[in-house]
Design brief:
Elements lengths: L6 H8 L4 E4 L2 E4 L5 E7 L6 H13 L4 E6 L2 H4 L2 H4 L13 H7 L4 H13 L3 E6 L2 H9 L5 E3 L7 H8 L5 E4 L5 H12 L5 E6 L14 H9 L4 E5 L5 H8 L4 E5 L17 H18 L11 H7 L2 E4 L14 E4 L10 H4 L22
Parallel strand pairs: 3-4, 3-10, 4-5, 6-7, 7-8, 8-9, 9-10
Antiparallel strand pairs: 1-2, 11-12
């Protein structure tokens, strides 16, 4: 059951801009879809792999790359850190050690930021805790992502929002009421917000994607830009999301889905990402205008195959034209069939051949 926005949130939203600038890119309706390669931890703690993945994302058409940062002790309780983590994706025997293996030092993130920007890419990061957000601010990060799991972490939301940078908020596993509260918390300090529809299942089966929520979120939170963060095995739903109004698309990105690590198995590889971006650009063009137009290329076909009023029999000069004398045939260069009532009862100005078009000078007005 949906409920209306609270009065306070409604007031905050009505003052917002229709687009948000993230780095050098504007995100919002009427702007090119912002395509984000979520590298996350798919660098496996390897700086050189991270650089190669950034280059591959650029070559695949990404406009932005996103990483993650977490202070493991600040994010997970001891029991969870010490939990045995023995599976094909594990990087270490315990979950805490596994997570630490996937972290990069802040100085390496600084280098990756500079490297990404040298390629013309927007570089931003998801902080999972306040210390990580402060570390990122120390390297002048250009934008922040808030993970779905922190939608209800209002303390972190406020902490990040106060930094004044653009924020992308994912909303997987959240209720509308929780999303409302998260947005209101951020907007107290920062109006540069993009809200991503998301389902927090890895990977997400089609029946749980709920892409029809995109127009719901667009209507509920307009003029906030609404994006899509996808975890489906392929990329077709991400393209469909654009048709439903997504202004940004974020996908996990890997050099190789079979690599060991948390997220490779639910990511897409460079050729898939490139095809997704190409399809997004194509569908953006194909969506076209919200008005019915006759295109120049349609006119010759219309003239050849549309219908006009024509004679069923020969009509002699001076005869009163009746409906029985008329029919409808191609081409469409004559009088429209809808003019039949205007023509019936008129007098033929000259002999009109059988099986010929009626012209504007064929009858007395």
């Amino acid at each position: 059951m949906r409920f209306p926005l609270g009065a306070k949130l409604k007031r905050l939203i009505t003052t917002l801009p229709h687009k948000v600038k993230v780095g050098s890119q504007y995100v919002g309706q009427g702007k090119p879809v912002f395509c984000i390669a979520e590298i996350g931890n798919n660098h496996n703690g390897d700086f050189e792999l991270a650089k190669r993945t950034i280059e591959a994302a650029k070559d695949a058409g990404a406009q932005a790359v996103k990483f993650q940062r977490r202070a493991v002790e600040a994010v997970f309780v001891r029991e969870m850190r010490e939990m045995a983590y023995d599976n094909p994706r594990s990087m270490a025997p315990t979950y805490g050690e596994h997570r630490k293996k996937l972290e990069l030092p802040i100085e390496q993130l600084r280098e990756l930021k500079e490297f990404s920007e040298s390629l013309g890419l927007v570089f931003f990061v998801t902080p999972f805790d306040k210390k990580s957000a402060d570390d990122l601010e120390s390297i002048n990060i250009g934008a922040y992502k808030i993970a779905s799991f922190d939608v209800t972490n209002l303390s972190l939301l406020g902490h990040v929002a106060k930094k004044g940078k653009p924020i992308l908020l994912s909303t997987g596993g959240s209720t509308l009421e929780e999303i409302d509260t998260a947005i209101e918390t951020i907007l107290k300090y920062n109006n540069r917000l993009i809200v991503n529809h998301c389902t927090s299942m890895y990977p997400t089966p089609d029946e749980n994607l709920d892409l029809n929520m995109l127009p719901v979120l667009r209507e509920r939170y307009k003029p906030l830009p609404i994006g899509y963060s996808g975890h489906e095995p392929d990329f077709l739903p991400s393209v469909i999301a654009v048709a439903l109004g997504a202004s940004a698309v974020e996908r996990h990105f890997t050099m190789d889905k079979t690599m060991r690590g948390s997220d490779h198995h639910m990511s897409i590889e460079p050729p898939e990402f490139k095809k997704m971006v190409d399809d997004i650009r194509r569908i953006t063009v194909a969506l076209g205008a919200k008005e019915k137009r006759i295109h120049a290329g349609e006119i010759p076909i219309r003239e050849k195959h549309a219908k006009s009023l024509a004679t069923r029999v020969r009509i002699p000069k001076g005869a009163v034209i009746t409906r029985a004398m008329l029919t409808v045939k191609s081409p469409g260069t004559g009088l429209k069939p809808s003019m039949v009532d205007f023509i019936v009862g008129k007098t033929a100005r000259y002999d009109i051949d059988e099986d010929a078009l009626i012209k504007t000078d064929s009858f007395e007005v």
